[in-house]
Fold this sequence. Notes:
The structure is a single chain. The chain has eight helices and 15 strands. The protein is of the alpha/beta class. The chain has an eight-stranded mixed beta sheet with strand order 1-8-9-10-11-12-13-14. The protein has a seven-stranded mixed beta sheet with strand order 7-6-5-4-3-2-15. The chain starts with 9 loop residues before the first strand and ends in a 7-residue tail after the last strand. Residues about 1-15 have low confidence and may be disordered. The chain binds zinc ion (ZN).
Amino acid sequence: MRYTVLIATTVLAGAVSAASYASCEPDRVVLQVLGSGGPELNDSRAGSSYLVWLDGKARILVDMGPGSSLNLERSGANIADIDAVLFSHFHVDHSADFPALIKASFFAGRDTDLQVMGPDSNRLMPSTEQFVSRLVGDEGAFRYLSEYYEPDRNSAYKIQPHNMPLAPLEVTTRPLNNDIQLSHIPVNHGPIAAIGWRVQAAGCSITFSGDMSNRYDSLTRLAQNSDLLIAHNAIPEQARGIARNLHMPPTEIGKVANESGSKALLLSHRMLRTLERETETSGFIQQFYQGPLAYADDLDRIPLPAQFTP
Length: 310
Ligand SMILES: [Zn+2]
């Protein structure tokens, strides 16, 4: 039953349900940045990755770009506590360190299955199930780890991949377990299969844009009343061409933050073309959103509700 989503799925047309708007209980949820960079290897930042802590335990990973596994180690997390890895898409700067987690989890004494959720396939990209099976399935590049995936082997735990559909452009919400609720919506990242994620726990909600252009205009619905919106500052306002086709400029980020009613905004996926332009970037964002705003660095810990200086 490897591919069965174990949990009931409710598709909510419009936006995240009103029941999700419970107020955020202080001192329970912490967002930690494991990778505040993008694909560059000369910016002293790990590739995109985030860790959600709940009541002192590391529970959810969102993406695992290059270098994030070292920052995961530095975070002090017990990786056996992680319930799920959520992928926004399978570009290298969001996924390259995932195989390292598979073997490390064995050494951490993991004995419960690891849920892995991400986009379905499109013309260019594999589905989440294909991504996992082509890494650690019987024909995978790391097939020496296939016991953690193939159902007919003995292993302390299994990876359970789940594909999230790329249509319709609506918010889908599902409980992961008793503590955590997950929502996602397809987003436009040029030709790449991509989704945005929202994690809710203890009344606190964090929305992760992933990489996206906002051409689908879908993130605003996912991010409704988020306690923290993490948006990717991959391009400056003036960018055009392929880069603009793939990413949101600062004004677009400002519009989403404002229209979603997000309570705090964290800029991440910082790149050489946006670093040291923060004053200019903030100016463009503040044309539309005047709330709390901060820029992410690796290993930043942000307890919710976020206390940034507006
Ligand atoms: Zn990226």
